[in-house]
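User: My instructor asked us to take a sequence, write out its structure as tokens, and then describe one feature of it. I'm not sure where to start. Here is the sequence I was given:
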Amino acid sequence: MVYFNSMLTIIFLSIFAMGALAMNANLIDWIDNHWDIIRSSVFSYDMNKFKDHVTTEINSLGIFSLTINATLLISMVCITNLLSLKHIITALSPMINLIFSVLASGLMLIGVFSLQNSNYITIPTWSSTLLIVVAIILLGIGILGYKAIKQLNRKLIMYHIVILSICVVLLIVICVGFFALANSVNEIVDKNWSEIRNILKQSGYEVRKSFLANQIQINLKFAGFYLISFIVLSLFSLGSSFYHHYII
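Assistant: Let's start with the prediction itself. The structure tokens for your sequence are:
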């Protein structure tokens, strides 16, 4: 359990560190759009100093996360030496597959939530739709992998390897799609702002163009980083399946 929790913590903290550094620009934009509200709470800073302060704090969080990961990695190496890699893989493989059922439901929610962006701005939705489909498949894959490894059924393990490998490729494509879309949001909003503003007004919203683009970018980047963590976990699951099929 210590090994399993350390592995999950390393994955999520690594993604957190990457996300914190990658979203610096979005946070600076958010400060620009909300400085009239923020200013009353930070009397000792002007806007530029506050931006520098926030950027420094975010970078510190990222570095601190990587430091924790280093200590967890040392712990995992020590546990591996004590228990042997074979014992750890055999013990953790069922748990890794079961957690797919939990995380795959998160993938579906992200897909549905990202589709809502298309209600106000015309953006490609293929990545969100494909994500929902893959998430539904992964719900079953987790159960299949758990059953296959528990029973050491090589035929089911092979099915698990093939289907999960296809899903991993699709997840990588979807992840690239989300980040590419995030980079094109500003251009799309600028090009169609008159139409988008009318849609927003009809829905009862009055927001700035830069604020809307920033929020959509943050949502798409969050989805992309969550997908990265899921891809890493999927690779662990694939590795354990290969081990059970070809080595044990």
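For the description part of your assignment, you could build on this observation: Residues 154-191 form the longest helix (38 residues). Try explaining in your own words what that tells you about the chain.
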